[in-house]
Amino acid sequence: MKIKRALLIGILIWIIAILFYSASYYVPIMENREAQANLVLFVVVIPLVWLGCAFYYKNDLQTHGYLVGQTMLLTAVVLDGLFTVPFFIIPQGGSHYSFFTSLGFWIIAAEFLLVAVLYWYTRVYHKTNLQKN
User: Fold this and answer.
1) How many CB atoms lie within 10 A of CB 117?
2) Which among 122, 103, 125 has a CA at the least distance from the CA of 42?
3) What is the pLDDT of residues 40-96, one digit of tens each?
4) Contacts (Cβ under 8 Å, ≥6 apart) of 8
5) What residue spans define the domains of the chain?
6) Collapsing DSSP states into helix, strand and coil, what is residue 108?
7) Does the N terminus or the C terminus of the chain have fewer Cβ atoms within 10 A?
8) How far apart, in whole angstroms, are the C-alpha atoms of residue 97 and residue 78?
């Protein structure tokens, strides 16, 4: 596994996701802005992770999608703990505990891993089987 590559992609995904998350607060569509931001994040994570996996797998077809997704996700989680929670959640009255135990966080985390695994099975898995034969 190319850990440095997965970490950098995870950082890039987090940066873009947090920009969409933040921007969604300035476009009032729903009454509940937090739910709106989580919905935007839920939608944006799909193409971000898919493109991140596409970039990762240009040079490595051997690493399972779950490991790549897990590495990118854990990178984003660490950045959430260091930056997102202190700058976005705590000023609104939240805490690290409330952020990391919220259902929305876990749904998006599961989606993140699911997209990475689906990418691997749809775009990479058959190529690894062809190389073995």
Assistant:
1) 19
2) 103
3) 999 999 999 999 999 999 988 889 999 999 999 999 999 999 999 999 899 999 999
4) none
5) 3-132
6) helix
7) C
8) 14
CA distance 130 to 37: 42
- How many Cβ atoms are within 10 Å of 57's Cβ, its own excluded? 19
The amino acid at residue 132 is K
Q: What is the 3-state secondary structure (H, E, C) of 47-86?
A: HHHHHHHHHHCCCCCCCCHHHHHHHHHHHHHHHHHHHHHH
Kindly report the pTM of this predicted structure.
0.92
Q: Which amino acid is at 29?
A: I
Instruction: Give me the amino acid identity at 109.
Output: A
CA separation for the pair 115, 120 (Å, rounded): 9
